[in-house]
Recover the amino acids of this structure.
């Protein structure tokens, strides 16, 4: 009698049929991306078998917000409307703002002794006057017109004073260990609709400027944010992806030895999230040094680094800080400030960069074709920088005159940036109380999850703890032995555990395979649920693992 015949005799037909149906469902789900799978799991979790509280630990959206910048934004809008009414006021129609004396009028309008947001606005203006030598009236005029959105973004790439402030914020938070002030002074920024828009703009402009071609090698540090795996494969680009993988045995830290792949001049682009998503690890000094060495061997390497989680690591140093010539820096304010709905981020590029160099070195026919594209908006397209080409491309060139991130969004970036800079001035260098509080939130949840699972965490300054990666097969080995773990691995589809966790317990996690990891890895976000939820998720994982174990014991007895 075969094993299958034996199982058929011991297990009721309706149970076998249900299992077969489940396997078919799970195999179909595996064809989807990680976020699409999670969406399907949400439906199951909301009506879970145990009628548990629905717990979605799949998304990285934080469940906290930074308040002072939002309150300041509101107060600036109120003042902006008041100012506009001084020139034209007809019911709910108001006029324009006047520059002369606007900073004095703002200070007179605010009540810093009784209103915390008002005090912050005055602190921010004083900070900018002292550190950037801004003219108060010019700066306040940009703030007020920006928040009320009464004009196009001018300059279209970034508002004049906003660029200096955003640069100072990036330098303070992402450039530890280098001359951050000097690097900031040599950097240009292009505010965008979040980090994802920045990535879309970058790849589009790389293609339009013939810096990437079908079949070119792009090296991707995996596991990585799922869409970043998909972009190179799109028929828009059709790039050849080379895996630069992190390993769980090394706590998802990228080894300096693996980075030597970049020495090969066939590698045209390096794409990474640093600190990583989902691994949550920032590149250590050895890895950064290896990248610095790699660009000596491969000087035309184009690097795209998404540093959205940088503020959650201690003394974070971006790849941009060690290889600015080669690197496009992408940053989003979404995670730290609880601003995913604002869609605000930026691209930063060095004044002297490989992208401009490669465009200048294009073959004559290719250069003529590219120059023709931008001749619609400039008489000297050959001198147009790559960052300005991205701005033009973001509006299909023809609408270049209306390009640029909306001014209210730009001012929100400025206020978030200034909140950090003012905090740092008061709290001491590298000590922003808000950043410390945000880090403590995810750290507490990380510890609760690990404690509940009875596993050791990794307490490293490079570990942001924003996400955890759980290997269910390692847990199975730890709880019930390797033989049981091997049975789980061979008897179920890779998302069976994920599926049952949602359907039975109402807990949704993300499938690590969709991030480029191997089967059995699940991602937990420590950002978007209450502290106690992580103990509950750990208990659900324990209980589900025990149910697998009981089934294994039962089937083992039947086989004997």
């Amino acid at each position: 009698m075969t094993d299958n015949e034996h199982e058929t005799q011991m297990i009721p037909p309706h149970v076998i049929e249900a299992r077969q149906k489940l396997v078919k469902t799970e195999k179909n789900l595996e064809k989807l991306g990680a976020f699409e799978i999670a969406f399907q799991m949400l439906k199951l979790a909301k009506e879970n078998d145990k009628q548990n509280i629905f717990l979605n630990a799949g998304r990285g959206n934080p469940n906290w917000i930074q308040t002072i910048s939002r309150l300041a934004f509101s107060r600036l809008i109120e003042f902006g409307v008041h100012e506009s009414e001084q020139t034209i006021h007809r019911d709910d129609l108001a006029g324009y703002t006047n520059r002369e004396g606007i900073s004095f009028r703002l200070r007179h309008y605010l009540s810093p002794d009784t209103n915390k947001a008002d005090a912050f606005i005055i602190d921010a203006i004083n900070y900018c006057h002292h550190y950037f030598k801004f003219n108060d009236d010019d700066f306040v005029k940009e703030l007020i017109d920006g928040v009320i959105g009464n004009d196009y973004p001018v300059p279209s790439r970034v508002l004049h004073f906003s660029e200096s402030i955003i640069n100072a914020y990036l330098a303070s938070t992402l450039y530890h260990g280098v001359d951050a002030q000097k690097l900031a002074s040599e950097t240009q920024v292009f505010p965008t609709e979040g980090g994802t828009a920045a990535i879309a703009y970058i790849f589009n402009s790389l293609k339009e400027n013939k810096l990437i071609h079908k079949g070119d090698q792009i090296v991707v540090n995996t596991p990585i944010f799922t869409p970043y795996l998909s972009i190179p494969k799109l028929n828009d680009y059709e790039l050849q992806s080379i895996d630069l993988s992190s390993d769980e045995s090394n706590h998802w830290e990228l080894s300096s030895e693996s980075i030597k792949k970049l020495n090969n001049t066939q590698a045209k682009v390096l794409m990474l999230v640093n600190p990583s998503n989902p691994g949550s690890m920032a590149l250590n000094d050895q890895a950064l040094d290896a990248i610095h060495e790699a660009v000596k061997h491969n000087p035309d390497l184009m690097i795209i680094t998404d540093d959205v989680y940088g503020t959650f690591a201690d003394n974070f140093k971006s790849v941009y800080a060690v290889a600015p010539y080669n690197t496009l820096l992408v940053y989003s304010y979404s995670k730290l400030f609880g601003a995913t709905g604002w869609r605000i981020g930026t691209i930063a590029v060095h004044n002297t960069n490989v992208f401009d160099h490669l465009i200048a070195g294009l073959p004559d026919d290719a250069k003529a074709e590219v120059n023709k594209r931008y001749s619609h908006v400039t008489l000297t397209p050959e001198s147009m920088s790559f960052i300005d080409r991205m701005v033009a491309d973001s509006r299909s060139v023809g609408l270049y005159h209306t390009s640029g991130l909306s001014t209210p969004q730009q001012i929100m970036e400025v206020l978030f940036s200034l909140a950090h800079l003012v905090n740092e001035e008061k709290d001491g260098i590298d000590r922003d109380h808000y950043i410390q509080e945000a880090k403590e939130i995810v750290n507490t949840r990380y510890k609760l999850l690990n404690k509940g699972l009875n596993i050791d965490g990794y307490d490293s300054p490079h570990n942001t703890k924003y996400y955890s990666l759980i290997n269910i097969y390692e847990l199975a080995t730890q709880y019930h032995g390797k033989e049981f773990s091997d049975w789980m691995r061979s008897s179920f589809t890779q998302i069976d555990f994920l599926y049952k966790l949602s359907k039975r317990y109402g807990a949704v996690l993300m499938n690590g395979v969709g991030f480029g990891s191997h089967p059995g890895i699940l991602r937990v976000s420590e950002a978007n649920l209450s502290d106690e939820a992580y103990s509950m998720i750990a208990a659900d994982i324990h209980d589900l693992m025990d149910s697998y174990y009981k089934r294994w014991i039962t089937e083992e007895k039947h086989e004997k």
Q: What stands out?
A: Confidence is low (pLDDT under 50) at residues 1-8. The longest helix spans residues 531-559. DSSP finds 22 helices and 14 strands in the chain. The chain has three domains: 3-60+435-559, 68-151, 160-413.
